[in-house]
From TrEMBL:
Domain AB hydrolase-1: 49-234
GO molecular function list: hydrolase activity
Record-stated family: Belongs to the peptidase S33 family.
Pfam family, one: Abhydrolase_1
InterPro entries: AB_hydrolase_1, AB_hydrolase_fold, Peptidase_S33, Serine_prot/Carboxylest_S33
Gene3D superfamilies: alpha/beta hydrolase
Domain of life of the source: Bacteria
Keyword Hydrolase: yes
Descriptive protein name: Alpha/beta fold hydrolase
Record's keyword terms, sorted: Hydrolase
Xref: SUPFAM superfamilies: alpha/beta-Hydrolases (SSF53474)
Length: 433
């Protein structure tokens, strides 16, 4: 049974779909997918083309918009929109520390999670499209990892696409995870330098906090063990348009004077725990590096190994001298499965995924070179999360793809830019600009 309800200017309908866990064995085990259909109130009964939204991540459910927030209002001018919770996320069949033990031990869990990459997500989309549109192609909007999924869509099932719009999500077609992170750390360092230029007082604040953490390693109220490395990973904020300001306001009230001396304030601890915990999106940590696996090499905790090539990110070394403590960015490390209580039970599963060597290619360069689907992509200049050089190289490899390279936005431009980003990209797919 489908349930419809209203928000300001929008009619929403909850939809659930049953799909195979493994699309190569359609009569085998199934999982459930949840999606929220959105249509403008004054077009609720109209025959509209569909747009499916693929969220970034991996591991995040689709946005829970209220009314016509962000890009949704622009999309609802002409589309019926499907906000899909990709497998394992949101209200779809969950994959987390509570549910994964139902699969068996760590090896069975790791085997299960190999089916949560872009290729399976695209096949889910095709199964849904066949039921929802009567077989008509639809438009896809892919944000970040959703863009990776979109490039897989163009590689494997372009007949399902009327058009494709990608925001901050053009992956390298052949880079190993090591290549991705070797490009990432210098980019992250530039973002940190820009933050310290904007807020020079944060240099000393970050040093004081890191020094405190190296001495005490406190356990936060929710059970998260806050190490200096974990503190540095708050730099993931710097990839968003408001991230530098959010980080600054977080650092300014880190300490409070107590009867035993200076301690981390409760408010700081609560906000840090909320930012660092993977309780709401454990798949991000589990399969993040697996989204780059495409050959016989294991990912083998790439971000951790490559970080050792950039000693300036070592907090202890920075504190031994006068260098600033550098924050890090969008990367997953083995120590996260010790510090985060939501990930600790999945530690061995994560190690097994990092050791796998049977990853299959996600993209088809030959098919992309012959692409006939109208495609447009926003590439954010010096995007902290997706390397600009990799994105531009891929853009040149997809026949007919039109790019909009801009430094007006950070990685979250499709949200922060309201209707403007989507409007521009749709116009590009139609040769209107």
């Amino acid at each position: 049974m489908t349930l419809s309800y209203r928000q300001p200017g929008v009619v929403l309908t909850d939809r659930r779909f049953t799909v195979p866990l493994d699309h190569d064995t359609p009569d085998g085990e199934t999982i459930e997918l949840y999606a929220r259909e959105a249509v403008a109130s004054d077009k609720a009964d109209a025959d509209l083309p569909w747009l499916v939204y693929l969220q970034g991540g991996p591991g995040f459910g689709a946005n829970r918009f209220i009314g016509k927030q962000a890009w949704l209002g622009r999309a609802l001018e002409e589309y019926r929109v499907l906000l899909l919770d990709q497998r394992g996320t949101g209200a779809s069949t969950p994959a987390n520390r509570q549910t994964l033990p139902l699969r068996g031990g760590p090896r069975e869990q790791a085997d299960y999670l190999t089916r949560f990459r872009a290729d399976s997500i695209v096949r889910d989309c095709e199964a849904i499209r066949a039921r929802l549109t009567g077989g008509a192609p639809w438009t896809v909007l892919g944000q970040s990892f959703g863009g990776f999924c979109t490039v897989n869509y163009l590689s494997t099932a372009p007949e399902g696409l009327r058009a494709a719009v990608i925001t901050g999500g053009l992956p390298s077609l052949d880079a190993h995870a090591d290549d991705v992170y070797r490009a990432a750390y210098p980019r992250i360092e530039r973002k940190v330098a820009a933050h310290y230029t904007r807020y020079p007082q944060d240099v000393e604040r970050a040093r004081r906090i890191a020094e405190y953490l190296l001495r005490h390693e406190p356990v936060l109220n929710g059970g998260y063990r806050l190490t200096a490395e974990a503190f540095q990973s708050l730099g993931i904020l710097l990839g968003g348009g408001e991230g530098s300001h959010r980080l600054h306001f977080l650092l300014e009230n880190a300490f409070v004077r107590t009867a035993r001396g200076l301690a981390l304030s409760d408010s700081f601890q609560e906000e840090v725990q909320a930012l660092l915990s993977y309780a709401g999106h454990p798949l991000y940590a589990l399969v993040h590096e697996a989204i780059y696996g495409q050959d016989g090499r294991p990912t083998a905790w790439s971000a951790e190994r490559v970080r050792a090539e950039f000693p300036q990110f070592d907090a202890a070394k920075a504190l031994a001298g006068e260098d600033p403590v550098l924050f890090t960015g969008e990367s997953v490390h083995p120590w996260m499965f010790d510090t985060d209580p939501a990930l600790r039970p999945l530690r061995e599963t994560a190690h097994l995924l990092a050791e796998r060597t049977d990853w299959t290619p996600l993209y088809d360069p030959a098919r992309l070179a012959a692409n006939e689907v109208p495609v447009a992509a926003a590439i954010y200049h010096d995007d902290m999360y997706v390397d600009t050089a990799h994105a531009l190289e891929t853009a040149r490899s997809i026949r007919g793809l039109r790019t909009w390279v801009t430094d007006e936005f950070e990685h979250d431009g499709v949200r922060a830019g309201g209707p403007r980003v989507l409007d521009r990209l749709l116009a590009l797919t139609r040769d209107e600009v």
